[in-house]
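From the methods appendix. Each design record in this collection lists the tokenized structure first, followed by the designed amino acid sequence. Records were kept in a plain field format so they could be parsed without special tools. The example shown here is representative of the layout used throughout.

RECORD:
FOLD TOKENS (762 positions):
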């Protein structure tokens, strides 16, 4: 688990400041204001102000600002948007530059175009090949292009390129070190640019600097060394009076610092800020503003904060920020959001004194905080469907950059511990309202920290709770709660009411032990209530017929050595306990085999089969009545004495009803397809070599594909002969295919059971 994931969990677990009640199974619709019939003068003025907020391109960042509009960038290109009417124009499908002016710089091939978006006049074109060198533009201040040109040995020079009345000017910036390289335009104000670069010998110690360049003079006026630079790109900001940048703090365990220098006096101040990645900086009228870009994949999120340069005053002005640029007049344009006003572009300018003023200029139409609109959690979840995979959903006002906590628990246990829980962070994704899907695999987590902590969910009632919050921790966490019921059809080998087949054994000491597979082929080796059921060596046959007594739970049937037949009804709880036994027959000593676990008559009730010592097969139809669970026996046929094992496997091969497999003394396995009336089709040979197994058990659906499977058992060392056999024995799973012609896939080893040689499984 990453630290980021843990941090998100802590945020979701914090005090919930907004909880929205929803009704299970319904989808609440977002509220919208009704049309205004009449307005006062104040209301009309307020409407005009609201209409002045223009659209901001969804998914874009601010890249530049002028007096009439602003430049945005995203993966599919750059656009210019006008303040007056919100008209948006695609200016380039690639890079575009535009800083503190209405001029936008684009490139087509070797030609750079400078387009004045305020006048919409024909663009000024500069053929870069005519400059007599290899130039790479990296920014623009007004109508002046900043470009680098190689000077050999990996170092660069910076040139200022412009065009006045068709005459192209090309000036080298003076005052830069001869070994400087890696230039970036970090900020600008009208007439000045703030460059960041690295200098020093290629094989020696290199240092990082920020430098103020006077555009008119073409010269560096101030240079500042970053004494503790941060690896990678770090923000810097420029105003008419100050310069600021980010660098590491003196203590490695502390967050980085914003360094602010007064350009006239050289006075330096340092302020601890958020993490090292994604810090966005700005300077505005005596304040330094900073905040961490919420889109960076790290653990810490900081709101956009204004720190006074004259006092200790500090104030949060936006809940989050992703990009910042300087606008003409000394203000900032900030792409960010507030819970109160939503996502968009904000102008930050000189305020009343206690903080800069913040105004929404353009809106994406999205909320910064999350709002819960509804959910898709059904009242009843059938885990027999879709292999137990359930698609659920949460309706939110936006679907990107969110963290979800999904919890399920038995009634009254949500705050005790999480039984079923998942945490998920969704970065990116669609914007706007819609369904955030999440999947539940029908599993549980009991929180014990042991091998049996996870498994298949039990049937019955549950409470659920979903918490959702912004991935960057902005805004309140919203919550939905409700209830649902998990249901499945009864399964013959399910004693724990969680759908998965269980395997039982009686050892030579007479202990009944039951193991829950939890749908895993390496079936859990943790015997639940192992040894709690003693005295089962009084029986010579034990059968798992299914819900023979008509309850939703699987029962056990056992025959004692005097021929008495006993029913052990399941107690209806999610454990391995049974109700006191009740006698359901006598004279069963005439049978050498008793078989259960299938509905052979097609009436939905499990039946029993028995073969007598003459090889006659008898059917005992199930009644579903716990007081008299078996009807009168019916003769099915003769000749079954040739088999040393008969197993009821359920509908294993796609026929209308339960099937049988029978093994003869030569180890050949035969399939008998059930017709649904208690009789069977002509047998079909399906394999040889099955005499390698002591037992073959129709265990039920072990892999959640909807078809019953087969377990084959090779015993371990016998108590009587400790020198032979495997000390633990082996179990193999034969998955069914649903095709009677080849009903099983190749075997796969299941687990190493703790059965000793004298154990019997069923």
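DESIGN:
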């Amino acid at each position: 688990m990453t630290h980021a994931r843990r941090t998100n969990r802590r945020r979701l677990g914090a005090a919930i400041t907004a909880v929205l009640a929803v009704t299970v199974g319904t989808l609440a619709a977002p509220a919208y204001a009704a049309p205004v019939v009449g307005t006062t003068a104040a209301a009309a003025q307020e409407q005009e102000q609201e209409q002045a907020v223009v659209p901001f391109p969804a998914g874009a960042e601010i890249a530049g600002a002028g007096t009439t509009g602003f430049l945005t960038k995203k993966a599919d290109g750059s656009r210019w948007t006008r303040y007056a009417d919100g008209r948006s124009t695609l200016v380039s499908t690639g890079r575009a530059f535009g800083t503190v002016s209405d001029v936008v710089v684009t490139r087509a091939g070797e030609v750079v175009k400078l387009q004045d978006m305020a006048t919409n006049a024909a663009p000024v074109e500069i053929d870069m090949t005519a400059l007599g060198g290899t130039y790479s533009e990296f920014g623009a201040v007004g109508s002046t292009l900043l470009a680098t040109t190689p000077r050999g040995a990996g170092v660069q020079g910076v040139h200022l390129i412009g065009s006045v009345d068709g005459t192209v000017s090309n000036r080298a910036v003076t005052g830069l070190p001869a070994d400087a390289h890696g230039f970036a335009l970090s900020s600008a104000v009208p007439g000045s640019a703030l460059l960041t670069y690295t200098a020093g010998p290629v094989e020696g110690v290199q240092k990082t600097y920020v430098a103020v360049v006077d555009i008119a003079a073409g010269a560096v006026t101030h240079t500042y060394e970053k004494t503790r630079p941060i690896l990678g790109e770090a923000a810097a900001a420029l105003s008419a009076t100050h310069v600021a940048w980010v660098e590491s703090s003196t203590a490695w365990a502390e967050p980085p610092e914003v360094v602010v220098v007064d350009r006239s006096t050289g006075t330096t101040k340092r302020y601890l800020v958020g993490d090292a990645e994604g810090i966005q900086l700005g300077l505005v009228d005596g304040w330094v503003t900073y905040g961490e870009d919420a889109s960076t994949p790290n653990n810490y999120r900081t709101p956009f904060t204004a720190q006074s340069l004259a006092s200790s005053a500090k104030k949060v002005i936006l809940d989050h920020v992703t990009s910042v640029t300087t606008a003409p007049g000394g203000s900032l344009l900030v792409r960010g959001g507030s819970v109160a006003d939503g996502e968009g572009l904000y102008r930050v300018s000189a305020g009343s004194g206690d903080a800069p003023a913040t105004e929404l200029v353009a809106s994406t139409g999205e909320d910064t905080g999350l709002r819960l609109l509804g959910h898709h959690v059904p009242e009843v979840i059938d885990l027999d469907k879709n292999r137990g995979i359930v698609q659920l959903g949460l309706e939110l006002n936006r679907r990107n950059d969110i963290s979800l906590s999904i919890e399920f628990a038995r009634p009254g246990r949500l705050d005790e511990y999480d039984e079923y829980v998942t945490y998920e962070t969704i970065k990116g994704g669609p914007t706007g309202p819609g369904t955030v899907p999440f999947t539940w695999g029908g599993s549980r987590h009991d929180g014990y920290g042991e091998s049996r902590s996870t498994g298949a969910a039990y049937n019955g009632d549950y409470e659920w709770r979903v918490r959702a919050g912004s991935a960057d921790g902005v805004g309140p966490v919203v919550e939905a709660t409700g209830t649902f019921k998990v249901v499945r059809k009864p399964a013959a080998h399910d004693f724990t009411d969680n759908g998965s087949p269980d395997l039982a054994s009686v050892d030579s000491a007479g202990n009944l032990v039951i193991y829950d597979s939890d749908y895993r082929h390496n079936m859990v080796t943790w015997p639940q209530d192992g040894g709690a059921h003693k005295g089962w060596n009084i029986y010579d046959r034990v059968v798992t017929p299914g819900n023979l007594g008509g309850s939703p739970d699987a029962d056990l049937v056992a025959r004692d050595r005097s021929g008495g037949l006993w029913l052990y009804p399941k107690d209806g709880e999610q454990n391995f306990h049974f109700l006191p036994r009740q006698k359901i027959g006598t004279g069963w000593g005439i049978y050498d085999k008793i078989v259960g676990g299938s509905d052979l008559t097609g009436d939905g009730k499990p039946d029993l089969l028995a073969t007598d010592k003459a090889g006659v097969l008898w059917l005992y139809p199930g009644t579903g009545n716990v007081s008299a669970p078996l009807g009168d026996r019916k003769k099915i046929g003769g000749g079954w004495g040739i088999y040393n094992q008969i197993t009821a496997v359920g509908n294993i091969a796609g026929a209308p009803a339960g099937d049988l497999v029978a093994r003869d003394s030569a180890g050949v396995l035969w399939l008998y397809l059930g017709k649904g009336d208690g009789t069977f089709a002509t047998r079909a040979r399906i394999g040889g070599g099955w005499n390698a197994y002591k037992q073959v058990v129709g265990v039920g659906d072990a892999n959640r594909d909807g078809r019953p499977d087969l377990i084959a058992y090779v015993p371990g060392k016998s108590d009587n002969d400790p020198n032979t056999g495997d000390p633990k024995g082996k179990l193999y799973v034969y998955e069914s295919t649903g095709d009677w012609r080849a009903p099983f896939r190749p075997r796969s080893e299941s687990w190493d059971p703790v059965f000793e040689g004298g154990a019997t499984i069923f």
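APPENDIX NOTE: Residues 1-51, 448-452 have pLDDT under 50 and may be disordered.
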